[in-house]
Specification:
The model is unreliable at 1-25 and 65-75 (pLDDT under 50). It is built from 9 helices and 9 strands. The radius of gyration is 42 Å and the shape is elongated. Strands 3, 4, 7, 8 and 9 form a 5-stranded antiparallel beta sheet that branches. Strands 1-2 form a two-stranded antiparallel sheet. Strands 5-6 form a two-stranded antiparallel sheet. By secondary structure, the chain is α+β, with helices and mostly antiparallel strands. It has a single domain, classed as Up-down Bundle (Outer membrane efflux proteins (OEP)), CATH 1.20.1600.10. Helix content is 55%, strand content 12%. Helix 5 packs parallel to helix 9 (463-497). The protein has helices spanning 23-40, 89-101, 103-124, 184-250, 256-290, 320-323, 325-345, 391-458, 463-497, and strands at residues 8-9, 19-20, 129-132, 135-139, 146-150, 156-160, 166-179, 351-362, 374-383.
């Protein structure tokens, strides 16, 4: 008797045509379509990210002097090599080595590469996992183990059967895939990308920080060179005053006390000149470390600062949120923390895992790779936590608290940035006024010294008046030199506070 195929239906009339009804095929198609819709149209559970509000003033409190007028919105510090605005070739050469040899910058670069690799790891979860474990097994069963054999009329017989050894060849292939129905995997990928962007911003912030530190040390070092040059000039002048006093003493018109005062003034100034070398050597050593060299391999020739700080465009306060790498890093961490909330919320929903196993298995090597040796299995798995004593709810609350912490850190970073800008703008404004007043004081002190010297030579004043005016003049001259160095370092710190010409458009896209 011929059996009809199960997927074919015949009409009751023998004369009718045979009509095929592909019920199983249609069901399989519907199931595959439904599964495809689930995999491709899965929703993203959790909140959407929006940049947190931050306290941004409409304008800066400190109004710069005329040479530091607030720039238009499109103005910014020159991108990249911002230090070139100082027109110092030696500074340019040193700054170029920070990116290449500074170990802290290299550390930040390695950390960014780690974060970038984490993106690749997270993205791999979007694809099926395929594994295989080929095996070759040689085995023999015990011949003393009783085996039940079916007999006639339903009776069984227990016998001991000697089974010869056998070799089993297996080539399995396992496929496992977790359907991203609720978007937890996609959120993990997005969070990894945002964390990597934060790491890249940290790298840029490290570069900016060490570049600014080098420029600051450089100007402070040459400020000491200005002090040293002034003291060397003063030592020569005091030697001349000592000779004058000795000559007057030999002529009987000056006392030994005047000679002692002149000698004391000269020795004290020489000691100050020597002491400058301590701080200068320390700055030189610090610069060597910043460019990744042992201090013994770097020597910076002396140079006296003569130019005032160049103008730096400040821009509008709202633009600062896009120009500071530390602010961008903090905002990216806020975005990543927001993704973690969605990941935690997705744990309330069931997860769908699709698994498939197939391969070839045979006890004969010649038949191992033949079609009859195939085996396979396929099936979905739906997993859902029924009771966890509030663990998932606590995890969601935990991620929300972590998110709020990153928001607070972001806002504090913004506030600190505005403080740094206001501080350096105020420093530049005040130091410029101080420099003008100090220049007038230097001129007055030099004039007073000329008058006291003339009176001493004429015998109308003692040497104590000369010593006093000399001390005042030297103090005012050193203060003027120090103010110029402070103005230059303040301009460097202002550029750093403005982001060094960086903006968020330079963040990597993944």
């Amino acid at each position: 008797m011929r059996h009809r195929p199960h997927n074919t239906q015949f009409a009751s009339d023998p004369g009718c045509r045979r009509i095929a009804k592909p019920s199983r095929t249609r069901s399989t198609t519907r199931a595959a379509t439904a599964l495809l819709l689930i995999l491709t149209c899965g929703c993203m559970v959790g909140p959407k990210h929006t940049r947190p509000s931050a306290p941004v003033p409409p304008a800066y409190k400190e109004t710069p002097p005329d040479s530091w007028k607030q720039a238009q919105p499109n103005a910014a510090v020159p991108r990249g090599k911002w230090w070139e605005i100082y027109n110092d070739p030696q500074l340019n050469a040193l700054e170029e080595q920070v990116n290449i040899s500074n170990q802290n910058v290299l550390l930040a670069e390695a950390q960014y590469r780690e974060a970038r690799d984490q993106v690749r790891i997270a993205r791999s979860a979007l694809f099926p996992l395929v594994s295989t474990a080929p095996s070759l097994t040689y085995s023999r069963n015990s011949s003393t183990v009783a085996t039940q054999l079916a007999g006639v009329n339903g009776q069984t017989t227990t016998v001991s059967v000697a089974v010869p050894p056998r070799t089993e060849y297996t080539l399995p292939v396992d496929v496992s895939y977790q359907a991203d129905i609720w978007g937890n995997i996609r959120r993990s990928v997005i969070a990894a990308k945002q964390t990597a962007q934060s790491s890249d911003a940290d790298l840029e912030n490290a570069r900016l920080s060490f570049q600014a530190q080098l420029a600051q040390f450089y100007f402070e070092l040459h400020g000491l060179d200005g002090d040293a040059a002034l003291l060397e000039k003063t030592v020569v002048s005091y030697q001349q005053y000592l000779q004058l006093t000795n000559d007057r003493f030999d002529a009987g018109v000056a006392s030994g006390g005047d000679v002692a005062l002149a000698q004391t003034q000269l020795d004290t100034t020489r000691a100050q000149l020597i002491d400058v070398g301590v701080s200068r050597a320390q700055f030189e050593h610090a610069i060597a470390i910043l460019i990744g060299k042992p201090p013994a391999e770097l020597t910076i020739p002396p140079s006296v600062l003569t130019t005032v700080p160049p103008p730096v465009p400040v821009g509008i306060p709202s633009a600062l949120l896009e120009r500071r790498p530390d602010i961008a890093s903090s905002e990216r961490l806020v975005a990543a923390a927001n993704q973690q909330i969605g990941i935690a919320q997705s744990a309330f929903f069931p997860s769908l895992i699709l698994t498939a196993t197939g391969g070839l298995e045979s006890t004969n090597s010649s038949q191992w790779f033949t079609w009859p040796s195939r085996f396979w299995s396929l099936g979905p798995e739906l997993a859902e936590t029924v009771f966890d004593a509030g663990k998932r709810k606590a995890q969601v609350d935990l991620q929300k608290s972590a998110y709020n912490a990153t928001v607070a850190t972001y806002r504090q970073t913004v506030l600190a940035a505005f403080q740094q800008i206001e501080d350096q703008m105020a420093a530049l404004r005040i130091l410029e006024l101080e420099a003008q007043a100090q220049d007038a004081a230097v001129r007055s002190a030099e004039q007073s010294l000329e008058i006291a010297t003339a009176q001493y030579k004429a015998g109308t004043a003692d040497y104590l008046a000369v010593i006093t005016t000399q001390s005042i003049a030297l103090s005012d001259q050193r203060t003027a030199v120090d103010i110029l160095a402070r103005r230059l370092t303040a301009s460097v710190l202002l550029i750093e506070a403005l982001g060094g010409g960086w903006d968020t458009s330079q963040l990597p896209k993944f």
